[in-house]
């Protein structure tokens, strides 16, 4: 009976090293996969950075045209205001003319 009792702890002592070895292999595989994912993410970040630089350069090239559009937009707004004022003034003149015509 003592021999049987001694055999059980010996078996239990062997199991943890196997489990530890399996855990180590699992962790090693997870580490490799994580490294690969980070490399993929690094490549994606590099591509995004390149694309962003390209877009910034294109935007810088378009900036003079965008500035011209803003100036034209301001001029159109001023022209619209002048047209409204001219329209109001012409209506006043027309009303005065009709008053004078009635006399």
UniProtKB/TrEMBL annotation:
Source taxon at top rank: Eukaryota
Q: Which Pfam families match?
A: BLOC1_2
* Region spans: Disordered: 1-22
Biased composition of type Basic and acidic residues is found at 11-22
Return the similarity comment. Answer: Belongs to the BLOC1S2 family.
The protein's name is Biogenesis of lysosomal organelles complex-1, subunit 2
Species this protein is from: Rattus norvegicus
Q: Where is the organism placed in the taxonomic lineage, from the top?
A: Eukaryota, Metazoa, Chordata, Craniata, Vertebrata
């Amino acid at each position: 009976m003592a021999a049987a009792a001694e055999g059980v702890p010996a078996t239990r002592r062997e199991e943890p090293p196997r489990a530890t070895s399996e855990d180590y292999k699992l962790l090693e595989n997870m580490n490799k996969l994580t490294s690969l994912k980070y490399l993929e993410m690094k490549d994606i970040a590099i591509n995004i950075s390149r694309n962003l630089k390209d877009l910034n350069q294109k935007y810088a090239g378009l900036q003079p045209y965008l500035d011209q559009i803003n100036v034209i937009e301001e001029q159109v707004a001023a022209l619209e205001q002048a047209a409204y004022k001219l329209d109001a003034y012409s209506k006043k003149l027309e009303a005065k003319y009709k008053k004078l015509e009635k006399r």
